[in-house]
Design a protein that fits this description.
Shape of chain B: globular
Number of helices of chain A: 14
Order of helices and strands of chain A: HEEHHHHHHHHHHHHH
CATH architecture of chain A: Orthogonal Bundle
Strand order of the largest sheet of chain A: 1-2
Number of helices of chain B: 15
Structural class of chain A: mainly alpha
CATH topology of one domain in chain B: MetI-like fold
Shape of chain A: flat
Largest sheet of chain A: 2 strands, antiparallel
Number of strands of chain A: 2
CATH superfamily of one domain in chain B: MetI-like
Strand content of chain B: under 5%
Order of helices and strands of chain B: HHHHHHHHHHHHHHH
Largest interface: A-B, 103 and 96 residues
Helix content of chain B: over 70%
Number of strands of chain B: 0
Oligomer: heterodimer
Radius of gyration of chain A: 26 Å
Radius of gyration of chain B: 24 Å
């Protein structure tokens, strides 16, 4: 009786030591990343959200003005409404479409082996590989006869005179959407490619024995459930990309674009954070609203993704 | 001999499990057509770099070069020799900034991802959701608080101003955590029973098994840092990266039509470095996974 108590006591002491060791290593492993993360990400976000309740022109000290920025943004700023509408349309079209494209192409490329596979991945990733690759679209869409698209259409006799693609209001959104879709095989695509690599091959053989008949069933019942973590990752990346679009709009159709046809929430934000005006408080309020919008979307998308493969 | 043939055929059949000819041809046609569109920037950049001046200004614009020449590169080389500080200096700076932050980020993010994926501790959920949320806040706005913090830490105008923040980008941690989650617990448990401590589990079990993930992360980080001109933080010419010199050169060159050739060469150099890095990493993703198959 006494002996077993002693040994149990020893065991629990050992377990406690083990527990303490695990705790310490856990925090040691987390420390390098999270200390830096706190300084360079968390703190700046908190400060920015704080700024959103102030008037701050980056020269004088920020002045607290309560909810004024938000009220002005939602009630008086009609350009924000256009930008908001554009961003929503843009995100609803490009977000799901490019997510699907990433998955589709990653899945097809996965059928290839070795160097062919690396090469194909490169081809499809090419638009994202150098940050400025989309600028070739300025040459394709150039409004004079030297633009590739105009040149081609003139040559073929579809057009009598060159079209000013990027300065015609009705073409602006479609152009931005096409370019974004062309750019869409980025982070999620490579994550899916890597994810498909780590799926255990024997799962497929087991599935074939269980009666999976074709590649489409295999995709839904085996592949997708096995790469759920990557699917979650891809969804977050798509949301952040689709809602935060600004660079292609500014570089391709200019800022401000014709009649604000290419304005997005972030281009509007950039107007205030140093582009034209210096109103950091207002820019921060825009960023905070966008942040809330993305969090909400993320919640919905994650709920849908949980059903994959059921 | 015959035996080998049978084995080969069996092997091939196993690989074509559940694959129909119709499906194959449908998907591969789709690949081919879209592939042409996707390859466009590579084709244009490569062809432009080899075009002589008269072809660069041709109408209708030709996609492919007719009389390839290396003149553009000699032109670029001539412009480079007239830069402020020796060109090799920019090169070294880029190696320090891009190399340092890529290695540092992959290590920091993986190290933090392991406990988030496989250990239990208080605040785990909170830390993880902070990382995901951080990716959703516009970086354009956090730039000025960031500048204040970097000045306050006294690392403004040093390499560290670019390298340290790059160690802790949220996306990398998220990516690594998602992959590490998939490693079976029994693998870790058996390593522990064999006497491995947590650092060994991380280095010998986790990292080799998620090699495709960290090679992918390295691609992302390399690309991001290669494109960074550091204009916000770096003021001393001696510590600026190559990308800064190239964009500077580009805006100088854009003055005259005569220098359009050198500009095409700049675009080529800017694009080709990440491509080489990409190919090295991607082909390694594939090689490792065929040689090691430790998974349950």
């Amino acid at each position: 009786m006494a002996a077993s108590n002693v040994s149990e006591f020893k065991k629990s002491k050992k377990a406690k030591a083990r527990h303490a060791y695990m705790r310490v290593t856990t925090y040691l492993m987390l420390a390098p990343f999270f200390v830096l993360f706190f300084f360079f990400t968390v703190l700046p976000v908190i400060i920015s959200v704080g700024f959103s309740f102030t008037y701050f022109n980056m020269l004088e000290m920020p002045q607290f003005i309560g909810w004024n920025n938000y009220l002005k943004l939602l009630l008086e700023d009609d350009i924000f409404l256009i930008a908001f509408k554009n961003t929503l349309i843009f995100a609803l079209v490009t977000g799901p479409t490019s997510y699907f494209l990433c998955l589709l192409f990653a899945w097809i490329i996965n059928e290839f082996k070795g160097r062919t596979r690396a090469f194909l991945t490169l081809i499809f990733y090419a638009p994202s590989i150098s940050g400025q690759a989309f600028l070739i679209w300025t040459r394709i869409l150039s409004g004079d006869r030297y633009g590739y698209l105009n040149g081609f259409l003139l040559e073929m006799g579809f057009l009598d005179e060159a079209i000013f693609w990027i300065t015609t209001e009705k073409y602006v959104m479609p152009i931005l959407i096409i370019v974004q879709l062309w750019l869409s095989l980025g982070h999620s695509f490579l994550a899916f490619i890597a994810g498909l690599q780590t799926i255990d091959k024997s799962l497929y053989e087991a599935a074939a024995i269980d009666g999976i008949k074709n590649r489409w069933q295999e995709l839904w019942f085996v592949t997708l459930p096995a790469m759920k973590p990557q699917l979650m990752f891809g969804a977050v990346m798509q949301i952040t990309n689709a809602f935060a679009v600004s660079d292609i709009s500014i570089q391709l159709v200019g800022n401000p674009s014709v009649n604000y046809a290419g304005s997005t929430i972030v281009t509007h934000l950039l107007d205030y954070s140093g582009g034209v005006r210096f109103e950091m408080g207002y820019a921060s309020a825009i960023a905070t609203l966008l942040f809330i919008l993305m969090i909400g979307t993320n919640k919905i998308v994650q709920r849908i993704l949980r059903r994959v493969g059921d | 001999m015959a035996d080998v043939k049978v084995k080969k055929r069996l092997f091939r059949r196993r690989h074509q499990l559940n694959r129909s000819m119709a499906g194959n041809s449908l998907l591969f046609t789709l690949m081919f057509i879209s592939g042409i569109f996707m390859a466009m920037p590579l084709v244009m950049i490569a062809n432009d770099a080899l075009k002589p001046l008269d072809e660069l200004f041709q109408f209708p614009p030709a996609l492919f070069v007719r009389n390839p020449t290396l003149d553009n590169f000699t032109d670029l080389a001539n412009s480079i020799t007239s830069t402020w500080v020796p060109f090799s200096r920019y090169l070294i700076n880029t190696v320090i900034i891009t190399g340092g932050s890529t290695i540092g980020h992959v290590l920091c993010a993986s190290l933090a991802a392991y406990p988030l994926a496989k250990h239990d501790f208080p605040l785990k959920k909170l830390l993880f959701s902070m990382v995901i949320l951080s990716m959703m806040f516009s970086w354009q706005v956090t730039q000025s608080p960031n500048y204040m913090i970097i000045s306050w830490l006294g690392i403004n105008n040093t390499y560290l101003a670019l390298i340290l923040p790059a160690f802790a980008y949220g996306m990398g941690l998220y990516l690594m955590k998602q992959f590490m989650e998939q490693i079976p617990d029994s693998l870790i448990e058996s390593a522990r029973i064999d006497g491995a401590n947590e650092w060994m589990v991380f280095w010998r079990i986790m990292m080799p098994n998620v090699k495709p993930a960290w090679l992918t992360l390295a691609i992302f980080q390399f690309q991001l840092m290669w494109g960074n001109t550091g204009y916000l933080f770096l003021r001393n010419e001696e510590i600026k990266p190559l990308q800064f010199a190239l964009t500077q050169l580009n805006s100088l060159l854009s003055g005259g039509a005569a220098r359009a050739g050198a500009m095409a060469a700049v675009s080529f150099v800017v694009a080709v470095v990440p491509i080489v890095f990409f190919l090295v990493c991607q082909s390694n993703v594939i090689e490792t996974m065929t040689s090691s198959g430790i998974k349950e």
